[in-house]
Specification:
The chain is α+β, with helices and mostly antiparallel strands. The chain folds into 3 domains: 1-20 and 104-144, no CATH class; 24-94, no CATH class; 145-182. The chain is built from 7 helices and 8 strands; from the N terminus they run E-H-H-E-E-E-E-H-H-E-E-H-E-H-H. The protein has a 4-stranded mixed beta sheet with strand order 6-7-1-8, with no helix packed on it. A two-stranded antiparallel ribbon has the order 2-3. The longest helix has 19 residues, at 146-164. It is globular. Iron/sulfur cluster binds next to helix 5. Residues 14-16, 19, 21-23, 95-96, 114-116 line the site of iron/sulfur cluster.
């Protein structure tokens, strides 16, 4: 299996209550099965809050005025504050980290719908580099079209090179002002 991350991937840090937006409002956050089990088993004060703040039928957090029921007035998460990051569900633990899955390939990225991820990506002074590593795991997707996949990878590489390797006379140079020469 091959794993790929952009070089800035591990620099991301959520800015929590300093975020002018917050990803904990405006949508129903679905809870993975493992976290649901953990939340059901919680018997302390947090368990009481979870009992009322989770929509057990739909498997998501309830909302109050469009905000997650656990997002407090200081724009901090009560689950995180009370019990730490290990009590967060998978969605909250991962966002804005995103994974694309192909046969024997995992590509990790940061979603620009998060303002801090966008600030990190758009503020880069250097061209993006992709770091890969491999292990011995193998998998097969019956519907995987290797031919189409290779063609799409070739096209993507070409598109990325247009932005990361600007050259004299490059078609994008005149449009975006790339390059240092006249
Ligand atoms: S949108 Fe990004 S920076 Fe803001 S709270 Fe969510 S993860 Fe943190």
């Amino acid at each position: 299996m091959q794993f790929t991350i952009p070089h800035y991937y591990h620099s991301f840090r959520c800015i929590a209550d300093r975020c002018s937006d917050t990803c904990c409002a405006g949508w129903a956050i679905m809870i993975d099965d493992q976290s649901i089990k953990k939340y059901r088993a919680q018997t302390d004060a947090l368990g009481e809050k979870l009992l009322n703040g989770v929509d057990w039928k739909k498997g998501c957090f309830k909302q109050k005025s469009g905000r997650c029921a656990f997002l407090n007035e200081a724009n901090l998460c009560d689950i995180y504050s009370d019990a730490g990051p290990s009590m967060l569900c998978k969605t909250c633990r991962q966002y804005p980290r995103h994974t694309e899955e192909y046969e024997d390939v995992r590509e990790f990225s940061l979603s620009m719908s998060c303002e801090e991820a966008a600030r990190l990506i758009l503020g880069l002074k250097e061209p993006v580099r992709f770091l890969t590593k491999e292990d011995d795991r193998e998998e097969t997707y019956p519907e995987f079209d290797f031919f189409l996949f290779s063609k799409l990878m070739d096209i993507r590489e070409e598109v990325i090179s247009l932005f990361t390797e600007p050259k004299q006379g490059h078609p994008l140079k005149s449009v975006y002002g790339f390059g240092s020469g006249p």
